[in-house]
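Possible regression after last week's pipeline update?

I re-ran a chain I had predicted before the update to compare outputs. Posting the input and the new output here so someone can diff against the archived version. Not blocking, just want to make sure nothing changed silently.
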Amino acid sequence: DNPTCEAAELAAAGDLDGARELLMATLLRDMRCLDAHAHLGNHLFDRSPQRALMHYEIGIRIGELSLPDGFDGVLPWSGLYNRPFLRCLHGYALCLWRIGRAEEAIQVFERILALNPNDNQGARFCWYDARQGKTWDQAQAEEGAEEARRAEAVRKARAKQARQTTRRPGPSAN
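New output (post-update):
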């Protein structure tokens, strides 16, 4: 019985309104549910990164209340209860980068990498691109072009394999 998992399933099935309602009901019961804030941010990210930013920031601020003053330890992804906070940080950094606040995004990506050095979220790639001066849109365009190149390579390899399969002589009748 995990409302954020149920909301994720609703969203995956295309019921974004149902997912949002479930997440909001979860927050009405307990505003400290960081994962609900992270998922609400995820739902808004494509349409309104400014509104998504708000959800991620609320999750971060609530999560920070659980950390001791001056915390400089790690919150590894392997600790399941660390993940909602790390998700909020990651979504927040992506929103900052997307809306043109790259320097702030870089700082948040660096914080994620300090908290979770194994970087299970891929923050290092975003951090690198942002430090190279790439905008969110440039990085997305490059990623899309790379995905298209990979898909074309796979298509060609499959076509070649199909041609080779059809040319093979059948077993001899001798």
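Follow-up from reviewer: compared with the archived run. The helical segments are 3-12, 16-29, 34-45, 49-64, 83-98, 102-115, 123-131, 136-167. Marking as no regression found.
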